[in-house]
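Inputs:
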Amino acid sequence: MPQTLSINGTDVPLPDDPRVSLLDLLRDHLQLAGVKKGCNQGACGACTVLLDGKERILSCMALAVQYEGRKVTSIEGLAANGTLHPLQQAFIDHDGFQCGYCTPGQICSSIGMVEELRRGVPSHVTDDLSAETIAFSREEIQERMSGNLCRCGAYNGIIAAISETHAKAVR
Amino acid sequence: MSIVQKIGQTVMKKAAELAPDAWLPGGKPDPLIEHRPALIGAPESRLDGPQKVRGEARFAAEYALDGMVYAALFYSNVPKGRIASIDTSAAEASPGVVLVMTHRNAPPMKPMPLFMTQPKATGGNDLPIFQDDEIHWNGQPIALVLAQTQEQADYASSLILATYLAEPSVTSLSAAKAKGTTPGLFQGEPLKLEIGDAEAALLAAPHRVDSVYRTPRHNHNAIELHAATVFWSDDELTVHDASQGVAHTAWSIAQVFDLKEEQVHVKSPFVGGGFGGKTLWAHQILAAAASKLAGLPVRLVLSREGVYRVVGGRTTTEQRVALGAQSDGTFDALIHTGFVAMTAHNALPEPFILPARCTYAAGSFKLDVEVATVDMLANTFMRAPGESVGSFALESAVDELAEQIGIDPIELRIRNEPEKDPTTGRPHSSRNLVEAYRSGAEKFGWGERNSAPRSRQEGEWLVGMGCATATYPYHRMPGGAARMTLSKDGRVHVEIAAHEMGMGTSTAQTQVIAARLGLPMDHVTFAYGESSMPGMVLAGGSQQTASIGSTIIAANRALVTELLKLTSHDSPLHGLDPDDVIGRDGGLCKIDEPERFESYATLLGRTETGELTVEASAPPPLEAQHWSMHSFGAMFCEVRVNSVTGEVRISRFLGSFDCGRIINAKTAASQFQGGIIMGIGLALMEETQFDERNGRIMNPSLAEYHVPVHMDVPEIDILWTDIPDPHAPMGARGVGEIGITGTAAAIANAIYNACGKRVRDLPITLDKLID
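Outputs:
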């Protein structure tokens, strides 16, 4: 049995070269170029992907071989049967991007971020560190999304898109 | 430039100044201004939005070619001197390596044509690339490795060993100044202007401020790394590039490799942020050279450090602003002088005096940019070169003067509003800064500001408000051209070598074309981003909208001229002139008799092919030499300064703009906000730090060069006057750069109002605010 990891529902063999980052596996080896490289050192968030559907990780800081048997979702895996994920549509509606380069990372990151709120993972701005779940607020989103840089400065649109999507999901 | 060319240019300029309005482009207002179809200004979502949110937009490093190899660069670590030895043997023997290229084996290449030296020149410097052993800056690439994988290339480049014969170098502004300065030249003219005796007027004025302001080097830091994926087929070179000037880049690369312009194909449909940095630097040349040598397609992606080593940013400035005023606030003297660092191999002396040339009336002016020469990476254009840092100094000084006189800073600005351009004497095409201040002040609640510093405290936070003027000129560069094909099914296809790096170019232009031709948006396709298309349209100077707009006016006129030739005697349009008709409801109608209408289907039904193709060029951009054409804005900021730690938080920001007519309310608002956010970075955190002993950039990473993040940015309120400029295409003056201007001063002024500390050295980090 070859050692594999699952990418957007498809089993993919681990790379032979253990130096290959998860980012380069996706981007260079599998041509999933929706995953972006902005710094290759964990400082910009453009390479954010989801692990097991809910945990956000920086794929540039991960070696592909670390993720044997795990399920990775990249931006390419979010739109189900061609229909945009609600967050993708909200990014369009609220103009949550300009050049579009950081966008896949912002979208994946915000999905993981909402999961962190649900799990009760506190942030620097959380008042009640022992809360079961963290209340959704503009400040919480801003703090938790600060690892995803947008040099074009579409931050207002991104926050609006995340807020609207979250409000609809809660309803 | 030859003397004949110089005389020719001077004559043209004078002629444009003196010509009757009607002779000039924009002399007769664009009909879209008066008729204003609903599409103009509509908040349309980006047409490329679905591609971008799905991750399907393809950027330069995302083209996989058969047999492609990956490049890595090796950089010098001395600022000046020669390569004494370079040992590449271990790299060559490393697994997967197919080529190591240095000056010893690189193909012959000419230097890049330097930006602004010729119409399509776009090189960041004009130094030899891998042609000799000379080192010109600390971080200059001196070897390139090609390997089967990026990992192999990166590892092999780490095995290269170089030694240097270092030579004395100048790597600080102070050392460079000590060696003497030269007057800055920008767009062929000295950055020097004297009207009256400003120094004497300053001394005689009852009120005066006179201070020095400093701004550091900056980097663009587009999130997309600079990259080129290249291949040769015979003598033709294709470059998938991240480019703000595809036609410029193709021509410039052709000069380097001694090719014809048509032999180089530059393609750049998506650019992951530009801000002035995505032009031609050594990496595209090196990728093409290595590809030629290896006979293989090459992908070269600069590392983030590589971007800092290879691609220049904004240079450092040291600016004196002195204002002399009467007790009623009117300026007797406006002095804005100082120094910028530049290299001997580039030509952008950060023109920080530009705001002072157009913003205020004054009894006398003294403006001067002096260049001090350093041995460092060439500096270049970065969002609002000149205005961004110049407006910080000027607008801080105006605030300081307002306090001294005891007058509201908005009122002081209004009292110095010029009736015509204060330094050229040209009439304003449209200037509504006072209106922008009024509406901005009202929405922001400026009236609640207490002018005394430290007058508002909430817990340990001191709260203050500040304002400043934003300014950026209207530009339209020569060379706009387009190809337009209209078919009888009422669809139009437009091709133009323009760019999309986040501005929403194709969306806004599709709106304009649809509005001009009277077609629905989904009947318009706008193709762009390839050098083989018509036109020379730089995505710079906030001019793309005007350049394309003017080109489309010309193309539409050519199209209408041909369509009218197709009218028969019984056609309701027969005998009409192109100026008599406009596009509406899928056809043409007479402007003042809309019932005289014929559809494009009917008109083109008279052709054999059922379609019509025209090519047209925009007229020379003489309007900007006839009128004073500038956008302005009123920037308002509320900050909170922590009285214990000195931490600054921006709690509110509002920009109120006068940029002519807005084409797309959604994408324009984002441009303004994005500019303001980069201005927040300029004010509070951005600095390319370098070691003054050796010119080495010390923070070449997004971890150590801080740009604004989500947490740094409040909701930013944007207003605009929407007053069309009668002399600009569509009445629009461009929105890409003005947001970064004025912002830093508004923040610095708010910080002063909050805590009483006037910081004149950017960035305003907390150490400068703690007692």
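Remarks. Chain B touches chain A through 64 residues (CB under 8 Å). The two ends of chain B are 54 Å apart (CA to CA).
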